[in-house]
Amino acid sequence: MTNFAHFSVEKHVPEARQARQYVDKQLPSTLIIGAVITSIVVVMAVMAPILATHDPIAQNLSNQLSVPSVKHWLGTDYLGRDIWSRLIFGARTDLRIAFFAALLPAVIGTLMGCIVGFIGGVFQWLLLRIADCLIAFPFYLVVLIVVFAFGSGETGIYVAFATVGWIPYVRVMSAATEAAKRQEWALAARAAGLSQLRVIFVHIFPNIVAQPITMFVVDMVYVIVAIITLGYLGLGIQPPVPDWGAMIADGQAFVTTQWWIPVIPGTAVIITGIGLSFLADGMTQLLRPEV
Questions:
Q1: Is the CB of residue 134 less than 8 Å from the CB of residue 161?
Q2: Contact criterion met (CB below 8 Å) for 114 and 204
Q3: CB-based burial of residue 160 (10 Å sphere; 0-12 exposed, 13-18 middle, 19+ buried)?
Q4: 175: nearest Cα among 117, 111, 115
């Protein structure tokens, strides 16, 4: 019996070790951790109408600043609104806006970068010089200026990020497309008489798509931070819509007495940022081409 057990361990431990090494190689630990954290946050945001215990905008002035309890899991704010309900609805609002605010410039910049990188010449030079001029200004300063110009709310946020967010994508995708079009497989596709758009988006883009994907996830972190900052300054989503930045701003006056009011949404921001950062790092490792 002992020999059989010994034989079984000796036989299967190396196989288990190889399987674990294969999984680690294929799926980096940072990717798994980031995916788990991000998935939890996203699921809570999507299921906010089901998970919420109260109306997130309903006020109850007779129950202001209550401590966490069975009725109010995370307590109430200075207007008697349930913090748990506002937290998950705030996640729903901020994640939705952050996703589209990051996606819009990603699509614009990727398309422009691929096209000018393939065409080259004066069009590429001109677009890159425009990008160089815009990138000279601090990112968050430009966002604040554009939001001031277009007004607070979702429209101002989308326009602000679309104004400056496309620049990194154009620079990266232009260089990647320019390098890819010189490869033999790209030259063969062009020699076969395929249209330029077909060569770009059917043959070249699938080989460089990893770069904009990882950049998009990284940008989500910056966009969320910017949205929270705008909400904190009163330039983001306007009341009574729940927003993490506004929740932090509303609770800062009570940080020494009811500390959980600003700390809870602040912690949610940190956890979400960590999850997205790990996810981006893991995707970079997974999609990085082997040399």
A1: no
A2: yes
A3: buried
A4: 117
Structure tokens at 242: 């729940």
Report the percentage of the chain scoring pLDDT > 70.
Answer: 90
Instruction: Please report the sign of the dihedral spanned by the C-alpha atoms of residue 193, residue 194, residue 195, residue 201.
Output: negative
C-alpha–C-alpha distance, residues 137 and 130, integer Å? 12
Other CB atoms within 10 A of residue 9 CB: 11
Q: How far is CA 103 from the centre of its chain?
A: 9
Look at residues 117, 210, 132, 211 and name the one whose alpha carbon lies nearest to residue 164: 132
Least confident range from 27-36, 40-49, 182-191: namely 182-191
DSSP assignment string, 135-191: HTS-HHHHHHHHHHHH-SSHHHHHHHHHHHTHHHHHHHHHHHHHHHTTSHHHHHHHH
| The pLDDT of residue 248 | 96
Please classify residue 35 by burial: count the beta carbons closer than 10 Å to its beta carbon, then call 0-12 exposed, 13-18 middle and 19+ buried.
Answer: middle
Distance CA 185, CA 178 (A): 14
